[in-house]
Design goal:
With about 325 residues, the chain is mainly beta. It is about 0% helix and about 55% strand. A hairpin with a 4-residue loop joins strand 22 and strand 23. The protein is globular and about 50 Å long.
């Protein structure tokens, strides 16, 4: 399946329980599509179109169990939109003093946002107010992840550092040394013991929890292209998306490329290097028992690339081969 959005997409997010995918577009529009998880030959249907912002819609996230959509924009505002009706629930004008670049869910009632000046804010969606603010970086916030056990935010930035923001103490507790490279993405691995950061030059930097001054390991053989986004498949493997359109399955400790399973060898996901893979989500994971004692993993992969969303059902043969 493929959706021609007609405009450059900056972000996508999936409904937590329904077959809905939201897209934030360069012209400030928020679109919502319904897709079929059972029939990949059927075309997704647009069920909602809202002009959410006066400038581009850089971030989009479902909140409140999927009943609302939260969007952020360079117009400094955060908008909450009702998923059923498309009506505005609330708008926070001047939520940041710079362009909003990132939104993530923390708990059922809190979200975090990051802007182009390196500021991170935590919002209470019930009170519609800011409950934490961190002047964490000197450049744009590229990605944020949340450790619920430690109640900490880990953020990467264009200034080349990783920050550790303590929500209980409302302070930046630690920050890494300058890595001489923009850090673009971050995930928690190994049950919270390792933090993996993707960089502009395609190197993965691994940090040990609590020791964020300098990385403990580097994976330099992945790609010469920037690692713009990462998704944790399990505690030992991540999926990376790069500016050249390649999506790789990567093992962490031991570090190795498990499978370069999606990308230009099938069909160029990104036809132009100016179009970056903005985000991707592996959903509908299911294991099918084969006649031998192994499993065959099928994943419905939906990739946001340029002006299109690509829906693909592909097998990951590395599981069958036992590698």
């Amino acid at each position: 399946m493929e959706i021609n959005l007609g405009k450059l997409a900056f972000d996508i997010d999936f409904h937590p329980s329904d077959n809905l995918v939201a897209t934030g577009l360069i012209d400030g529009d928020l679109n919502l599509y319904r897709y079929s998880a059972d029939n990949t030959n059927s075309d997704p249907v647009r069920v909602l179109e809202v002009h959410a912002h006066t400038e581009s819609c850089r971030a989009a996230r479902f909140i409140n169990g999927g009943r609302a959509l939260l969007t952020g924009s360079p117009d400094f505002s955060i908008l909450a939109t009702d998923v059923e009706s498309g009506s505005t629930i609330a708008r926070l004008d001047n939520a940041h003093e710079a362009a909003i670049n990132r939104l993530i869910n923390l708990t059922e009632s809190t979200v975090a946002s990051g802007d182009d000046d390196g500021c991170i804010k935590v919002w209470d969606t019930r009170e519609r107010s800011c409950c934490n603010s961190f002047e964490a970086h000197e450049d744009y916030i590229s990605d944020i992840t949340f450790s619920s056990d430690a109640m900490k935010l880990l953020a990467t930035s264009g200034d080349g550092t990783l920050s550790d923001c303590n929500l209980r103490r409302n302070k930046v507790q630690a920050q890494s040394e300058f890595s001489e490279d923009e850090l673009l993405s971050v995930v928690l691995m190994k049950n919270g013991r390792k933090v993996v950061c993707g960089s502009q030059t395609g190197i993965l930097l691994l940090y040990s929890w609590g020791c964020f001054k300098d990385c403990s390991d580097r994976f330099v053989d992945l790609s010469s292209n920037s690692i713009d986004t990462m998704l944790k498949l399990d505690e030992d493997r991540i999926i990376t998306g790069s500016e050249n359109g390649m999506i790789n399955l990567v093992g962490i400790l031991p570090n190795r490329i498990r499978c370069g399973c999606f990308g230009p060898r099938v069909k160029p996901i990104v036809p132009n290097l100016n179009f970056l893979i903005v985000d991707f989500v592996i959903s509908c994971l299911q294991f099918l028992q084969l006649i031998w004692p192994s499993y065959f993993l099928f994943s419905l992969t939906i990739v946001c690339a340029g002006t299109s969303l690509h829906f693909r059902m592909l097998p990951n043969f590395y599981l069958v081969c036992g590698s």
